[in-house]
Design a protein that fits this description.
It contains 22 helices and two strands. The protein is mainly alpha-helical.
Amino acid sequence: MNLLEQIVKSFSDYAWGLPLVILLIGGGLYLLILSRFLPFRFIGHAIEILRGKYDDPNDPGQISHFKALTTALSSTIGMGNIAGVAVAISFGGPGAMFWMWVSAIVGMSTKFFTSTLAIMYRGKDSRGDLQGGPMYFIMEGLGKHWKPLAVMFSFFGMIGALPVVNVNQLTQAINDIILIPNGVVVGLKSNLIIAFILVSLTSVIILGGLQRISNAASKMVPSMVLLYFILVLYILISNYEVVPKYLMMIFTDAFAANHFTGDPFLGGVLGALVLLGIRRGAFSNEAGIGTAPMAHGAAKTDEPVREGLVAMLGPAIDTLVVCTLTALAILVTGVWETTSDNGVSLTASAFSSAMPGYGKYLLMLCVLIFSVSSLFSYAYYGTKCMSFLIGAEKKHYYNYIYIVSIILAATTPFSMMLNLIDGTFALMAIPTMIATVIMAPRVVKEIKAYFRRVNKYIKYDK
């Protein structure tokens, strides 16, 4: 097991080398400049679209803008926001959060472009149903000669969509917060029981297809973000006197790297800290990875730019809001310096410190909702990838692989699961970002055409 864990870590570290950082961040900055900072100029218009102002039930697609966003968010707002942030702070200190913010700001532009392309170049699966996602916009937008990129994305997408990190950390949370404090001996048997409960719950939703997944996500996502926001707000109010100090430290430590404890990279400690923040940011908001365009590609719309505007809200909600809340809760309570806990256990320590006795149980409720909602969306992504590779008639086989992975994840070390998904996400990002950068000028033309059509609401060129 130790040898396997080392192999997976080496794979992940190699995949997250300098070329990928340049592709993700450099490519995202290029898209941001090319669009003339569109994600920040039209947030108000994006919210109007999300509220349904421009909805037309006759538009092609399967689900509404709101359900597309909540389905995408139900996968991104998960353990990346609780365990991922905790890992970043454990290894990189407060400064890691700054680079997660950079990843999110650049990621808003990336999400806009990838999700716009998902509508511009929708393709049809073997059943003739309209589908969106990187594999389809690569084939439809770049042509059949680029099929190896589409196959690469779909193959690694099936692995990246496995819910192993969410399940692993949910199991750890149940063990650390509920079972161990109440005298229950945890081990393989208890982990398997948790896994079988999760399998039963997940199967009911994922076997019902996209409509059932999107319906569940649209109900769970808003409520879980609101509950988490209220709980962390209480922690911040309880420790209000140190909030300014740690907010400032996020900025100062981003360049000083005083608290970094990981392996040096590139230019030394600072380079390693930058990589850590970008890596954890990508794990959290998945911008540039290619998962969200699969959900947004199913939206009922004939205006690609509208769906891109809705999609760009994802990194803002996920990283700029939810991840920042987690980071501040861990920092202001001081547990990041006083405990050796990592992952979800570190966040649980922060909640217990601020709300002795009941805080960890409230976090457990959030963790449960975060994790279970993520299980639904990732299953949809995996079936879409398998459908592209071997045909829509056989895509249901992925659900069985998915269910087996839940059992595997509940009984495997956290670091191995995190490195596996990290490395796979990196290999999904390569085809997604290459195709997006190549087709970016086409999206800019579509932006101008869109705002000319709706210029009675907005003047794009002024």
